[in-house]
Amino acid sequence: MNHTITRLAGDGIGPEVVREACKVLEAAARRFGRSLGFQDALIGGIAIDATKTALPDETIRLCQAADAVLLGAVGGPKWDDPHAAVRPEQGLLGIRKALGLFANLRPVRVHPALAAASPLKAELVAGVDLLVVRELTGGLYFGERGRRKDPSGEAAFDTMIYSTGEIERIARRAAEAARGRSGRLTSVDKANVLESSRLWRATVTRVVTEEYPDVNLDHLLVDAASMFLIQKPGRFDVMVTENMFGDILTDEASVLAGSMGLLPSASLGEGTLGLYEPIHGSAPDIAGKEIANPIGTILSAAMMCRYSLGWPEAADAIEAAVDHVIAEGARTADLVDPGQTPISTCEMGDRIAAAVLE
Ligand code: NAD
What we know:
This protein is of the alpha/beta class. It contains 12 helices and 12 strands. The protein has helices at about 15-30, 45-50, 55-65, 90-100, 120-125, 165-180, 195-210, 220-230, 245-255, 295-305, 310-330, 345-355; strands at about 1-10, 35-40, 70-75, 105-110, 130-135, 145-150, 155-160, 185-190, 215-220, 240, 265-270, 275-280. The strands form 2 sheets. A 10-stranded mixed β-sheet has the order 2-1-3-12-11-4-5-10-8-9, sandwiched between helices. A two-stranded antiparallel ribbon has the order 6-7. The model has no long low-confidence stretch (mean pLDDT about 95). Nicotinamide-adenine-dinucleotide binds near residues 75, 261 and 282.
């Protein structure tokens, strides 16, 4: 079986971590007898330099024609002027829109050997294994906004708007994910205050009750959810929430694991085409030094195998290989204990690829 993967390495450490993820995917292809074709395309700052746009049409075309897209990161000081007409993040928002990606999946798993790396007490984070499903294309970030005159000077507004259709499709994605795990789903909203949250709660309840009676659903207000995430993170399995709440809660949840460099994500639409990327940015402070942790991108590649390539055995093998090298003590600079010698980005990739082949 052949798979075509479009690579958007992007800026900063993007090319370093994407290179290692592809090395690991190649190892999986060797082990399981599949063949992978990679095609490279531009996004972000590097695309602005080459084409004056953060998302060239050719990039969209290559992504639409692929089975899956693997992204590094975009941005950096060179393109950071907030007043610039063309900015690297436009590439990210643009590609999500062009591919119709409305669901962002962010797993957070605390490896037992890394529990001490978390800023929370090790006994609190031990065993944490949760998945946040964030709605990605609706809500406050996409509603009508503007400014108007006000007796005090000026007023500004943003609109949080959700339709039943938008809520139904993300509820289904989350319920499917919960079914593949322990069957527990927590929907997070602010239904005591917001009308959009009342529609959210009623719609999620209807979809899950009617279509996924085997899924055990509960609801939490977003303020309580943010508290439980640091007080009792082990209570969560799958969490589903709207765009802005998800933006904030996923960053909070990412801290549990100890390093941003460890965490993957997937952005999915109606079909199987998905975009896979680590949750971190382009880390310009360490770019080019070969010290970045590639595990977030490697685990994103594992998610790609599971959700876009219909290749769960490769996903399992990659995740097991990551667990194996962490258990053996392999650590990049972001994870080392005092006195321990870190390994390079490339060496981490080599060790995980070798473990996939074992
Ligand atoms: P960042 O995630 O790039 O870095 C934050 C800190 O974490 C830095 O100290 C960095 O060295 C460290 N870090 C990040 N990834 C790491 C890894 N894999 N291994 C080891 N250490 C790692 O966030 P930032 O510094 O706020 O942003 C830098 C640039 O990235 C900005 O231009 C920002 O706009 C952009 N950004 C892009 C994305 C994306 O492409 N999805 C996301 C966030 C930020």
